[in-house]
């Protein structure tokens, strides 16, 4: 279990990193926290010829916000985000989700950007990004562009990014008003990959009726699954047992999970329905305050 | 590319070595520096045996390349005891039967030492969550949880006595 040989570069700034990435073509790979990349290198499932270490790029390690947007640099450690008061107050769904990623020791090293670009179908951060339709800022030597989460994830471990591109920061919209959110997952043990995870954020009007809602599920498809009909079905409604039942049934009929060693498709479908109900109830209660 | 220089401080001692970039920090610590207290189990970040403290954070040394530890301060299990005196946590592992074969112990001690520094009054649930990052096949974890709880109690007593 030792990685194959590679060339190692430690750029001093973003432009040097992008230049290295450009010149190494398909053989180059960015390493941030390495908590997903190094295991697959140790198992030789990945054998990049050239590793570009961005751990020294402190410009990419930040948490910031303006009135409407929470901004997180790609190199920000998961543990830093988990304990950030700013993140908790502006985007509590992220704080709640990050606590489920791996373990203390991996969150101390793992980064926000690394988890997102790895794009594991059951990972927490891609799910939250999808649930909130965050924006990804991506740079190459030629250009900097933005892409919405809904357009970013393509399939298993595959995103919209090209080999010469690097994620630099993510932006999450800050919801104002009577907002509640909830993140729930079921894993065999704490810290394991989720069998199924659900994330929900909703906003209520003065009469406790839903004015906006985003609901997404992880672990049920190749990419995080946004339940687009949730808004149409629930807008102007209160969260009642009947409404929750309706959405849970919709989720049950929309997901097509795969069976694997960890759980059968039937069990995953059942979990998707149960977790949908749980996040809807919890987000609603939290929004009511 | 051949060899890359690494300058690192481990348990207060400076090491300057030339290594292949693909050398894992866990192997560097054990084989290059001869500090075999850090154990290597799964080598893909699951078992927790190789946990060390790097720049104040408990991390898995099998998921970091030695070249990435350049200019870092590392503490391994050998660096916990001060002048031969075991820490309270280490003593309580002995007292509460927190280990049998000892393979997982070094990693757990490094994680819990970091954990208790940041969260001196943890709940049992928090202790168990932290331990979920470590595999122990001997103890059933009961003794380990007790050792951590007792360390928290001992620390509290010490604080009371001092005040």
UniProtKB/TrEMBL annotation, chain A:
Pfam families: CO_deh_flav_C, FAD_binding_5. Signal peptide: none annotated. Gene3D superfamilies: 3.30.465.10, CO dehydrogenase flavoprotein, C-terminal domain, Uridine Diphospho-n-acetylenolpyruvylglucosamine Reductase, domain 2. Residues 1-177 form the FAD-binding PCMH-type domain. The keyword Oxidoreductase applies. The keyword Oxidoreductase applies. Keywords: FAD, Flavoprotein, Oxidoreductase. PANTHER family: XANTHINE DEHYDROGENASE SUBUNIT C-RELATED. This is Xanthine dehydrogenase family protein subunit M. It comes from Fictibacillus terranigra.
From TrEMBL, chain B:
Keywords: 2Fe-2S, Iron, Iron-sulfur, Metal-binding, Oxidoreductase. InterPro entries: 2Fe-2S-bd, 2Fe-2S-bd_dom_sf, 2Fe-2S_ferredoxin-like_sf, 2Fe-2S_ferredoxin-type, 2Fe2S_fd_BS, Beta-grasp_dom_sf, Diverse_Oxidoreductases. SUPFAM superfamilies: 2Fe-2S ferredoxin-like, CO dehydrogenase ISP C-domain like. Residues 4-80 form the 2Fe-2S ferredoxin-type domain. It comes from the Bacteria. The keyword Iron applies. This is (2Fe-2S)-binding protein.
């Amino acid at each position: 279990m030792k990685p194959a040989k590679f060339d190692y570069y430690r750029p001093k700034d973003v432009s040097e990193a992008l230049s290295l990435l450009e010149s190494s073509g398909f053989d180059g790979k960015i390493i941030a926290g390495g908590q997903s990349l190094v295991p697959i290198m140790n198992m030789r499932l990945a054998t990049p010829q050239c590793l570009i270490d961005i751990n020294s790029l402190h410009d990419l390690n930040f948490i910031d916000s303006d009135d409407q947007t929470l901004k997180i640099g790609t190199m920000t450690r998961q543990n830093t985000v988990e304990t950030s008061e700013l993140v908790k107050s502006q985007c509590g769904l992220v704080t709640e989700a990050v606590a489920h990623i791996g373990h203390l020791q991996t969150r101390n090293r793992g980064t926000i950007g690394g988890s997102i670009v790895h794009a594991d179908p059951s990972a927490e951060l891609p799910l939250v990004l999808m649930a909130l339709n965050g924006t990804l800022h991506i740079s190459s030597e030629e250009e900097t562009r933005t892409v919405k989460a809904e357009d970013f994830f393509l399939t298993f471990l595959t995103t919209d990014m090209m080999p010469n591109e690097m994620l630099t920061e993510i932006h999450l919209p800050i919801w104002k008003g009577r907002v509640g959110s909830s993140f729930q997952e079921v894993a065999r043990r704490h810290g394991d990959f989720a069998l199924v995870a659900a994330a929900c954020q909703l906003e209520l009007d003065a009469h406790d009726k839903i004015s906006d809602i985003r609901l997404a599920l992880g672990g049920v498809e190749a990419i995080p699954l946004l339940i687009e009909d949730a808004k149409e079905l629930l807008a102007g409604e209160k969260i009642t047992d009947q409404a929750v039942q309706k959405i849970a049934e919709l989720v049950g009929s929309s997901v097509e999970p795969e069976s694997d060693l960890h759980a059968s498709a039937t069990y995953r479908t059942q979990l998707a329905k149960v977790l949908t109900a749980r996040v809807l109830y919890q987000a609603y209660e939290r929004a009511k305050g | 590319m051949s060899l890359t220089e690494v300058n690192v401080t481990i348990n207060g001692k400076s090491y300057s070595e030339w290594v292949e970039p693909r050398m894992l920090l866990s192997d560097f610590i054990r084989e290059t520096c001869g500090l075999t207290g850090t154990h290597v189990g799964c080598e893909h970040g699951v078992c927790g045996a190789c946990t060390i403290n790097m720049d104040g954070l408990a991390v898995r040394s099998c998921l970091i390349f030695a070249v990435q530890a350049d200019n870092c301060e590392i503490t391994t299990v050998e660096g916990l005891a001060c002048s031969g005196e075991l820490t309270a946590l280490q003593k309580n592992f002995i007292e509460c039967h927190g280990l049998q074969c000892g393979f997982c112990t070094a990693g757990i001690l490094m994680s819990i030492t970091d954990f208790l520094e940041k969260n001196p009054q943890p709940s049992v649930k928090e202790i168990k969550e932290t331990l979920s990052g470590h595999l122990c096949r001997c103890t059933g974890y009961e003794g380990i949880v007790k050792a951590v709880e007792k360390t928290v109690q001992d620390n509290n007593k010490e604080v009371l006595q001092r005040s």
